[in-house]
Each structure stands twice: as structure tokens, then as C-alpha cells.
Amino acid sequence: MNAQLQPTGSAYFIAEQTEKDETRTLAVLVDNEPGVLARVIGLFSGRGYNIDSLTVSETEHEKHLSRITIVTRGTPHVLEQIKNQLERIVPVHRVVDLTAMARERGQERPLERELALVKVAGTGDHRVEALRLADAFRAQVIDANTEHFIFEITGRVSKVEQFIAIMKPLGLVEVCRTGVAAMNRGPEGM
User: Fold this and answer.
1) What CATH number did the domain enclosing 137 receive?
2) How many angstroms separate the Cα of 15 from the Cα of each of 2, 5, 65, 119, 142?
3) Is residue 118 within 8 Å of 153, Cβ to Cβ?
């Protein structure tokens, strides 16, 4: 057998040989009812797809609709399959590939933001440096005492990750992240 066609552990081994992995942000509008999130997550886990970020909240209270924002990775073929399979789940109303839509409009990525709470413990110079860097990153102090700070930072995922990395040597204790919230530019909605 030709070495290029040997399976690599995935059912999509042929596509993996010719296509590069991409990161995509999907917005999924669903009924806000018990079990819907489990069904969406089950689709990913049952097929071996990974979720890099997952954010869920009810967005239209009167209609009882929730928006699930999923950041995932795969070949274009696999990502198209994920989108098609999501659309077949009964309580799913709409699936939008925000990354593809942004590219169609000449934009690199959709608008993506994440919120993180970052706890840093320290005294003396480390404490002063943590405060100085937090100010540079526009992170807000939301809790503090003489031994620690809890910062709130909002921004692109790369900004949040950079802030966390900078806080590690200064006494990083704990991080809590919300996951990505994303939306495309322009007047149209989902």
C-alpha cells in the first residue's frame, strides 16, 4: 500500500494528507431546552472532534433561544462535515461559520473576545510589577488584599493568553476563562 494512503488513526486520513487544519468559529442558534447542549457536544465527542472553546447563553429570552459559540479545528472537509451535522440536530435553528463569513467579506477573522479572571499572589516588587502590567493590558483589579489581586481582563484570545503568561513569574495562582464570544462585522445578524 502506498505510504501516503495509510490511515493515521482518523476516518478522514485522505483529507488530512492533502488539506491543512484550520481554526473556525461557529455560531449555533438553538432552542433553550434541556439536553440540547449535550446533543451538540455529543456530536463532537462521538466523532473525535475537539472543541477549543465553548460559550453558551440564552440570547433571545422571549423566543427561548440560546447561542452556542464553538471554536474548533480541522481540515476544511471535516469542518464542513461538522457544520452539516450540526444543522441536522433537531433543536438547531441555524449554524453560521463566522470565520468563513468574515473571509467572504474580506476580513481575516470575526470579532472575538474573551473574559478572564486572573489571580496573582505576591508582595513587594512582584506586586508593583503585576499592577503596572495589568494597567498596560487594561486589566481591572476586581478584588485585592495585601497578599493577592484578582484581575479581570477582556480582549482577544491572544491578549488574554499573553497577560496570563506575563503573570506566571509574578505569582499566578489561578485562571478562569469564559471562552470566546464572537460576532461578524456589518449590519446583518445571524
Assistant:
1) 3.30.70.1150
2) 15, 10, 35, 43, 47
3) yes
Question: Where in the sequence is the domain holding 172, given as residue range(s)?
Answer: 111-183
CATH code at position 89: 3.30.70.260
For range 181-187, the mean pLDDT: 90
- Beta-carbon contacts of residue 100 (< 8 Å; ≥ 6 apart): 24
Contact call for residues 47 and 173 (beta carbons, < 8 A): no
Strands (E), 2-147: 22-31, 51-60, 65-74, 92-97, 111-121, 140-144
Cα 16 to Cα 7: distance, rounded to the nearest angstrom? 10
With cell 497578599, the residue in question is 147
The answer on 17 and 78 residing in a single domain is: yes
pTM of the model: 0.80
92 and 160, same domain (yes or no): no
pLDDT tier at 189 (50, 70, 90 boundaries)?
Answer: confident
